[in-house]
Amino acid sequence: MGLISLDLLKAKLGITDESQDEYLQLIIDGVSLAVKNITNRNLELTAYEEEKHVGTGTTSLLLNNYPIASVQSLKINNEETSEYDILNDKKDAGKLFKKETWPRNAIIEPLTLAKNGSVLRENKNISIDYTAGYDPIPADVQLRVLEECTRSYEGKNSIGNIKSWELGNASEDYTEGNGVGATTGFTSDNEEYFKKYYGDYIIND
Coil, strand or helix: which one is 48? Predict the structure, then answer.
């Protein structure tokens, strides 16, 4: 889908026809992928299935993605439960709270390779289907993505490794430094902004 709409980018660029729609969408997708790589997370609302976790033995369980929008299914030791609360305030984003604690399920296994004794292995006894991400995408994210898409269109970066494009009989190559792909990467300000405010679980600063 991308972090901004095609219509928003076209409005910014003053484009009213549809002749460049596929190319503009490619830019949006490339910039959105770059944001995902910088932040190491999906900002878009996304469904996740059968995410496995080890019980923490505490009242909180940190999921892999945030903010949590909804939980469709949560099983502990293969038994469905609804005895938990979603925490999405800044310091606890991405956590599920359980008053009775998230139970651990350790398995004692014999050591192998001619060694004596046994080893305690934690079992991923919690399975979760849930949806996480932003809907709508925050305004500050959209503005900075729009800026980078505009820079890409104007040939000031090569976001998403867009080195060439081809649509029907039309094509263009930017590897010689003309147009999109002439330079690489976000502006340092935008890159640092995404790392600081949206980087993977950098949420306590």
Answer: strand
Helix 139-153 to helix 21-39 angle (10° resolution) is 120
Question: pTM for the whole thing?
Answer: 0.77
What are the φ and ψ backbone dihedral angles of 87, each rounded to 5 degrees?
A: -110, 125
Taking a C-beta distance cutoff of 8 angstroms, is the pair 160, 29 a contact? yes
2 Cβ neighbours under 8 A, 6+ residues apart: 25, 28, 29, 31, 32
> What's the pLDDT tens digit per position in 165-196?
566 666 656 554 443 333 337 888 999 999 99
Pair (188, 121) in one structural domain: no
Number of domains within the chain: 2
Q: What is the CB neighbour count within 10 angstroms for residue 152?
A: 27
Range of the domain at 108: 46-132
Q: The tokens of 46 are what?
A: 């996304």
pLDDT (average), residues 136-151: 96
In a domain, 1, yes or no: no
Number of separate helices (H) and strands (E) present in the chain: 4, 11
Q: Domain end: 132, 147, 178, which one?
A: 132
